[in-house]
Amino acid sequence: MLDDIIFAVTNADTDSNQSEVEQQTELMYTDNTIWTAVFNADKTAIDHLIDIDPDVINTRGAVGECPIHMLFLCGTDAHLEIARDLIIRFPIIVTQIYNKPRYYGENILHIAIVKRNPTMVEWLLYNNHLESYREELLTATATGDFFKIGQPSYYGETPLGFACCTNQWDIVEILLKYGADMDATDSNDNTILHMLVICNLSEIYGKFKARWIEQQTINDSKKIIKSKLMKHTKLWNRLNKDGLTPLTLAADLGRAQMLSWLLDERKTIQWSYGNVSCVLHPLDQLDRDFDDDNKQRILSVIEVMIKNNNPELVHPIITSLIDKKWKYFASRILIRRFLITFLYLLVFLGTTIIQQTRPEIIIADENDQKAILINDKYSSVMHKILSRIGRFIVISGALLKSAREIHEMRSLGFWNYINSTGSIFLENFLSCSFCLGIFITQIFHLFEIHHYETLILAFTSLIGWGYMFFFIMPFRFTGPFVIMIYKMLFNDVLRF
């Protein structure tokens, strides 16, 4: 089974990787070698080669494998019988791992799990001869290129992760019985629950979570390092390197079915009366920071959905939450922001008109030709006062908006801020562009570069009033038109 996976994936890899696997295959058909004896399950030949050179058991193949790995990989009863005999004679070989980049870190326990052989898994962990190597077997991590994130065989690196991600709860029970760490994470800080979301295995997720809670309850009742346990974040609230919990990871990957299952799994039924039930859904991770010891800013499910712009993830719970937020406070916030922005833009427009207006003195000569003299010295006091007040309001507004955008950038993370989509991207882009335009305009005004000041001012004014589109996007009748204009500007116009 694993052979098929290896060769199928290898065909898509580089020539160097193909060459290594080809060399491995050639060695199996080369006469009088340990590899031929292993491939043919020839116990007599293997014993003969070991008698000649006991170190032959440590021979490395083309991809970093040892003979014991190939015995497990072939996986027939004859091969496994030879493997048991060699392990009893040379117990240290159970700790051997692939030592080349492609399959680095994989041991025989990983292979036994992928080959779906619970009997061999139990034997490796139960055998008294191997008790001193048990922890090393359970904590080995397969970190080679074949097991990297994004690959079909990304199973969380540890044997427990392999068992969970290949949907083998019987083997999971065996591993847990012999002390496998349920809190283990891989090199991406993904827990087992993260991995189960990636593999879309909701049933195993439920079983593993229940088992983890049970284990924590036992530890708590026995008062085993209780003070330390109290500081631990719950397994389903832990973050990976991308700052995602299992729930938000499901939203980020677009796993609509898994996300729906996770949301339903979190609910609490308060009471039922016939077909009617009162159900509570926790808001942590759904719409706000959950209360734990993590100081890292995390994205909620709604934020991830908006960022990825995936309508398939919309769940009735999320729809209900958004409707309630709009009804109770979001609509008032939008109206208040609209009025403030509209008044600010009116001040900006008035200030621009005042700055561009100068008192004119018309002088006629003897030939009745008229000349216009413009001079700021003749500006009225009121004209100057209004101009300075307007400039102060415009600059102050730009500074406040810039501070807000910087705060949002720091809280969300720079790349999350930059990679936002839809209305969030439109709001961020227009806000930053407008503030930048105001600051550049003021610099040009300070150095009296009036030609470029007027040019930048025109673009800034266009962006400022274009920002008003943001406030009509939520409405059913106007929203589609704004989205259409937005797509035309950023998809079609920018191409030219």
Question: How do the strands and helices of this protein lay out in sequence?
Answer:
Blueprint: H1 2-10, H2 15-28, H3 34-39, H4 43-52, H5 67-74, H6 77-89, H7 108-114, H8 118-126, H9 134-139, H10 159-165, H11 169-177, H12 192-198, H13 202-221, H14 226-229, H15 246-253, H16 256-266, E1 268-273, E2 276-280, H17 301-308, H18 316-356, E3 360-364, E4 370-374, H19 381-412, H20 414-418, H21 422-446, H22 450-466, H23 479-492
Antiparallel strand pairs: 1-2, 3-4
Please give the radius of gyration in angstroms.
34 Å
Q: Count the strands?
A: 4
Helix and strand run: HHHHHHHHHHHHHHHHEEHHEEHHHHH
Query: In CATH's first tier, which class of one domain applies?
Result: Mainly Alpha
Helix content: 55-70%
Shape: elongated
Strands of the widest sheet, in order across it, are 1-2
Low-confidence stretches: 1-14, 225-230, 290-294
The percentage of residues in β strands lies in under 5%
Membrane topology: Multi-pass membrane protein
Main location: membrane
GO molecular function: calcium channel activity
Keywords: ANK repeat, Calcium, Calcium channel, Calcium transport, Cell membrane, Ion channel, Ion transport, Membrane, Repeat, Transmembrane, Transmembrane helix, Transport
Provide an overview of this structure.
With 496 residues, the protein is mainly alpha-helical. Among the domains are: 2-181, Ankyrin repeat-containing domain (Serine Threonine Protein Phosphatase 5, Tetratricopeptide repeat), CATH 1.25.40; 336-495, no CATH class. The chain is 58% helix and 4% strand. The protein contains 23 helices and four strands. It has helices at residues 2-10, 15-28, 34-39, 43-52, 67-74, 77-89, 108-114, 118-126, 134-139, 159-165, 169-177, 192-198, 202-221, 226-229, 246-253, 256-266, 301-308, 316-356, 381-412, 414-418, 422-446, 450-466, 479-492; strands spanning 268-273, 276-280, 360-364, 370-374. The strands form two sheets. The protein has a two-stranded antiparallel ribbon. A two-stranded antiparallel ribbon has the order 3-4. A hairpin with a 2-residue loop joins strand 1 and strand 2 (276-280). It is elongated, with a radius of gyration of 34 Å.
